[in-house]
Amino acid sequence: xxxxxxxxxxxxxxxxxxxxxxxxxxxxxxVLRGTDLTRLMVTLGVSMMLFEAANKLTDFxxxxxxLQGVEIQPVFGMFxxxxxxxxxxxxxxxxxxxxxxxxxxxxxxPFGLSLRGIRQNVxxxxxxxAPVNGRLVAVYTLGAAYAGVAGGLLTQTxxxxxxxxxxxxxxxxxxxxxxxxxxxxxxxxxxxxxxxxAAHHFLSDINPQYWxxxxxxxxxxxxxxxxxxxxxxxxxxxxxxxKR
Length: 244
What we know:
single chain; mainly alpha; 10 helices
């Protein structure tokens, strides 16, 4: 949209969320079949198919050169995106706050409580009238919309899109962030992101060639001694008498 003259940032985020949600809804009937391992493999297969499709559709995506020529209008017509990144930073923080607030509302709603029940015991939820497959499709579609907003933010703040956004390494980084922070918690995702990025910059500065080794070693330690991530470790430290 920004490349072909529709560079309004809010309209772009809305369009990214809508298109990503539609793609998530269509692929959810394929991805959500089977067990967790099957879902992981199907997700990887869909990602590889999208990567190769983007690589071939050079007229639309730019191929290996990426999508260039993206022009984003100033936020509210006053704050333009520049090389210093101040507008991009505060704009991203504002969007993050809004999306996090919406996610909290969803988590604490009856819909969110039903998702907790599905996570804890999927076999009992149909007995209380909760449509398990419908709930999973809905939350998968919602997650895809959030991913679309994230991709829109990345595009608007950098004004460029590369094939790396569809690579396996990008998906692996997100999984690492969830493992670090603690899966199943909103604050765990935020904390995991901050810890991962800080560790990334710190370790790459110390050892640019082998920084991934030390990051992997830290992940192994977290799995061994804090299986629920940083949030789980914090709960154990703050509530020592809690039943484990």
